[in-house]
Design brief:
The chain is mostly helical. Helix content is 43%, strand content 0%. It contains 7 helices and no strands. Helix 1 crosses helix 3 and helix 3 runs parallel beside helix 4. The radius of gyration is 27 Å and the shape is elongated.
Length: 170
């Protein structure tokens, strides 16, 4: 899995997380910094205060994995689609770190949809709805035009092509 990892994306995500938290980025690997879920829970509590009520800073692996699960539930409630959320084992057991980075990048992008958040965002600006309204006259004006969607071959046809459907003689 490490072959698919994008170190630049991971670095961007970490910089964004700690910019939101207002803390310096700690030294260490991406997955080691995030593994216990404490940083993630603090992140979502900054974006949406009160999202994660209980954060375990130390304890058994199971208790630390609960931090990640609470974070996942909170980001789903925040508006991140389920298919963009990484699995707990992807981070805790290092199964798919690239998916963790992509999920966090998506979270950084979706902050743009929350007008109450005026802190840093991540990724390109999200598109907004651009609905267009046409009058009946504008819609009818197009009816007389030749539709070139399927292509137009100026009246060419296969009529007169005597070999059409026959086998090839060699």
């Amino acid at each position: 899995m490490s072959g698919k990892r994008d170190k630049q994306l991971e670095s961007e995500v970490l910089n964004w997380i700690f910019e939101v938290l207002g803390e310096p980025v700690p030294k260490g690997e991406f997955e080691d910094i995030l593994k216990d879920g404490v940083v993630l829970c603090n992140l979502i509590n900054k974006l949406a205060p009160g999202s994660v009520k209980k954060i375990q800073s130390k304890g058994t692996n199971f208790q630390l994995m609960e931090n990640i699960q609470r974070f996942q539930a909170a980001i789903k409630a925040y508006g991140l689609p389920q298919e963009e959320i990484f699995q707990t084992a992807d981070l805790f057991e290092r199964r798919n770190i690239s998916q963790v980075a992509l999920s966090l990048f998506a979270l950084g992008r979706i902050t743009q949809k929350h007008p109450e958040w005026n802190g840093p965002t991540l990724g390109p600006k999200m598109a907004e709805k651009n609905e267009r309204h046409f009058t009946d006259e504008q819609l009818r004006a197009h009816e007389g035009e030749l539709n070139l969607q399927m292509g137009f071959n100026k009246g060419a046809s296969q009529s007169g092509l005597g070999s059409f459907g026959n086998t090839r003689h060699m």
